[in-house]
Design a protein that fits this description.
The complex is a heterodimer of chains A (about 475) and B (about 100). With about 475 residues, chain A is α/β, with parallel strands linked by helices. Chain A is built from 16 helices and eleven strands. Chain A has a domain of about 240 residues: Amidase signature (AS) domain (Amidase signature (AS) enzymes, Alpha-Beta Complex), CATH 3.90.1300.10. In chain A, about 40% of the residues lie in helices and about 15% in strands. An eleven-stranded mixed sheet of chain A has the order 1-3-2-4-6-5-10-11-9-7-8, with helices on both faces. Chain B is mainly α. Chain B is about 35% helix and about 0% strand. Chain B is built from three helices and no strands. The longest helix of chain B is centred in the first third of the chain and has 18 residues. Chain B is flat. The relative contact order of chain B is 0.07. Classes of the chains: A alpha/beta (about 475), B mainly alpha (about 100).
Chain lengths: ~475, ~100
């Protein structure tokens, strides 16, 4: 086995009796070992995944194997897997062991996927470069001096470097799409509420989405269709039916494709990325689609809206980490209040503390209306504007990122500078609509460029079809 | 809006965080930069606009109220930094006036 890029490679090997699941896992374990310097994995479940592979090999022989038999999955360190550690790359969850399994993971396990390990990320998924992990940054496999993006940096790199077949991530404001673009892989953020959040560590609950990294559209579609749908453990999850995304991946007929004219005219976006988008629009025009410039005046307000709301929600969600029931507790406390404060101050990283402070401020009585309520109102307007565009058009095409992957240490001195990395991904998060990042070429330095395709609520099927038909490398 | 030292200390207390004296300046600076930047939302006219408070389109997800097995006590205590087999243990707080 020289290389495995996709699940169909694995299926061919298994069906042709050229490899067993155990061979596949051994292949990936070797690749993980060879790529330790990338720091993508926080923990590798070596023995356990081999054991599980042998059980699945027996099932295959008996003709009883599930739809994901042979698929090897890496999970961002924010998903609960029973009897396994989960830390969100934070010291505050040191030693914590999950007591149940996330619904999204359980559904993959039920179809005989093999989970190979926990992947590095920004602490509590807060960051755009994976430099906020308590366990060190992840390196971009395309250029080790550059970041993989964040917060799901480990997931993106694990797929980029071929360390697993697919990886799970979470996307709150771009945490799947931005690293997917930096690392030349496919990443989807589905519609808010499409996948159960049960067992996903909470960051900003009105934004958090479970999504998938893969090397191609087909694998992405298959994994999402298995994970998505009603779940009695999450009352917010959508109960609407989940289409079999992977069954029909071809787009037919002319589409109405919108793009935001100001983005191509204005500054602040790397020239290579603008050209990349322009040539994609040209290609679609030549393929017979209607390509239409639209105006999105509220676009620039999405990022500040996002930062007010997510800091507020995270300050509330992260209040549970107090050193009482689980995780890290300080050793030198005088009384309980001191214990809370020292525990949280010692174990949360700088960016997490900054966001908790900001969130506590915007939720405090005197400023609640001026900041928090105001942002909720603007969110309503941004959502309405996005939905209007996507009601009149099939898709909205945008860059994923203003630049290609930046250098380690380039933006981590000034938090605002780092926040701008999410400039083009937060709109879909603020509106709750689905968006996919697909690999779409390289810049002058040979660094990957992603393209973002956004659709209306619950139109993942259309996204996959369009992306697969026009932006697939295979 | 500008955060000063007094506001910073108040917020840190509410957030159950400690800011070391040497970190107060940089934290105030970061927070004020971010707040100044988010204040651009004031340019947007939101008169008569309802705040968006629920992103899920689902309403009233009912289920039967059934008795099920929940986590047993030993498991619930397993992740605790300090416990006595029945309860979580915390430092003494009765009679502590600082809270």
């Amino acid at each position: 086995m020289e290389s495995i890029r996709s699940f169909s490679d694995i299926r061919q090997l298994i069906e042709g009796k050229n490899a067993s699941c155990e061979d596949i896992v051994l292949f990936y374990l070797k690749k993980i070992e060879e790529n330790r310097h990338l720091n993508a994995f926080l923990e590798v479940f070596s023995e356990e995944s081999l054991q599980r592979a042998r059980i699945i090999d027996q099932k295959i022989q008996q003709g009883k194997a599930g739809r994901l038999a042979g698929m090897v999955v890496g999970i961002k360190d924010v998903f609960c897997l029973k009897d396994h550690k989960i830390q969100a790359a934070s010291k505050i969850l040191e030693g914590f062991v999950s007591q149940f399994t996330a619904t999204a993971l359980q559904r993959l396990l039920d179809e005989d996927a093999i989970i190979i390990g926990r992947l590095n990320c920004d602490e509590f998924a807060m960051g755009s470069s994976n430099e906020n992990s308590a366990y060190g940054p992840v390196l971009n496999a395309a250029d080790n001096s550059r970041v993989p993006g964040g917060s799901s940096g480990g997931s993106a790199v694990a797929v980029q470097a071929g360390l697993c077949t697919v990886a799970l991530g979470s996307d709150t404001g771009g945490s799947i799409r931005q690293p997917a673009a930096f690392c030349d892989v496919v990443g989807i953020k589905p519609t808010y509420s499409r996948v159960s959040r049960y067992g996903l560590l909470a960051y900003a609950s009105s934004f958090d989405c479970v999504g998938v990294f893969s090397s191609n559209i087909e694998d992405n579609a298959l994994v999402l269709e298995i994970m998505a749908g009603a779940d009695e453990y999450d009352s917010t999850v959508s109960r609407s039916e989940v289409p079999a995304y992977s069954k029909n991946l071809l787009w037919n007929g002319p589409a109405k494709v919108a793009y935001v004219k100001e983005l191509l005219d204005g500054d602040g976006v790397q020239e290579d990325i603008k050209q990349n988008l322009s040539s994609s629009l040209q290609m679609l025009k030549e393929a017979g689609h209607e390509v239409i410039p639209v105006s999105f005046p509220l676009l620039k307000y999405a990022l500040p809206t996002y930062y007010i709301l997510i800091t507020a929600e995270s300050s509330s969600n992260l209040s549970r980490y107090d050193g009482v029931k689980y995780g890290y507790r300080t050793r030198d406390a005088k009384g309980i209040l001191d214990m809370y404060k020292k525990t949280r101050t010692q174990a949360f990283g700088e960016e997490v503390r900054r966001r908790i402070m900001l969130g506590t401020f915007v939720l405090s009585a005197s400023y609640y209306d001026a900041f928090y309520t105001k942002a909720q109102k603007v969110r309503n307007l941004i959502r309405a504007e996005a939905i209007k565009i996507l009601t009149e058009h099939d898709f909205l095409l945008m860059p994923v990122t203003p630049t290609t992957a930046f250098k380690l240490g380039e933006h981590n001195k000034n938090p605002l500078e780092m926040y701008l990395a999410d400039l083009f991904t937060v709109q879909a998060s603020v509106a709750g609509i689905p968006a996919i990042s697909v690999p779409n070429g390289y810049d002058a330095n040979n660094l990957p460029i992603g393209l973002q395709i956004i659709a209306n609520y619950f139109e993942e099927e259309q996204l996959y079809q369009f992306a697969n038909t026009y932006f697939s490398r295979s | 809006m500008q955060i000063d030292k007094e506001t910073l200390r108040k917020i840190a207390h509410l957030a159950r965080l400690e800011i070391q004296p040497q970190d107060e300046g940089p934290m105030i600076n970061d927070l004020n930069n971010i707040l100044t930047w988010v204040e651009q939302l004031n340019e947007v006219n939101t008169e008569g606009v309802e705040p968006l408070t629920n992103m899920s389109l689902e309403e009233n997800a009912f289920r039967e109220d059934e008795v099920k097995d929940h986590i047993v006590r030993e498991d619930a205590l397993k992740n605790a930094p300090d416990q006595d087999g029945t309860y979580f243990r915390v430092p003494k707080f009765l009679g502590n006036s600082s809270s």
